[in-house]
Design a protein that fits this description.
Blueprint: H1 13-30, H2 33-36, E1 38-45, E2 54-62, E3 68-74, E4 80-89, E5 92-98, E6 101-103, E7 107-111, E8 117-121, E9 130-138, E10 140-149
The chain binds copper (II) ion.
Copper (II) ion (CU) binds next to strand 8.
Length: about 150
């Protein structure tokens, strides 16, 4: 047998699990938010007087080589946050909740008036000029962004 013949390696299942954990760890380091996700134009429109529902807009860039999937958002200033889009229903524009928004590699998506938006329910304790909203992703660490409070 020559010296450079590959030696068969048999790993114990627990060692394989350990390797998986290491791989996941490396993956999460490689996906640190500062490197591959950029959020710009983050603005929150506070509730109208006497109301408790606000809206938030932003642009999300995915410079990475894998699709990025936004699955929701949370914030200490809202009881709940939903992702919505607008759909045409005859002559009416209606809001519809969406479970996820996928951003293609090297792509971007803009949450804006008449399109995707974050709907914030039971808004409380707004402290200008900025509020924190955390964007939640599938297979990616959450990203907390300071949203500029728009005054009405
Ligand atoms: Cu909405």
């Amino acid at each position: 047998m020559s010296d450079d013949a590959p030696t068969p390696v048999f790993l114990h299942p627990s060692a394989i699990r350990l390797l998986w954990l290491l791989a996941l760890l490396l993956l999460s380091v490689a996906c640190s938010p500062s490197e591959d996700i950029r959020v710009t134009d983050a603005v929150m429109r506070p509730p109208l007087p006497g109301k408790t529902t606000g809206v938030a807009y932003f642009t999300l860039d995915n410079p990475g080589s894998a699709p990025l999937v936004l699955i929701g958002a949370e914030s200490p200033i809202a009881g709940a946050i939903e992702m919505h889009t607008h759909i045409h229903d005859g002559d009416m524009m209606r809001m519809r909740r969406v479970d996820q928004v996928e951003i293609a590699p090297k792509g971007s998506v803009t949450f804006k008036t008449g399109g995707y938006h974050l709907m914030l329910f039971r808004v409380h304790d707004l402290k200008p000029p900025r509020v924190p909203i955390t964007l939640l992703f599938k297979q990616h660490a959450p990203v907390t962004v300071a949203f500029e409070l728009e005054d009405y």
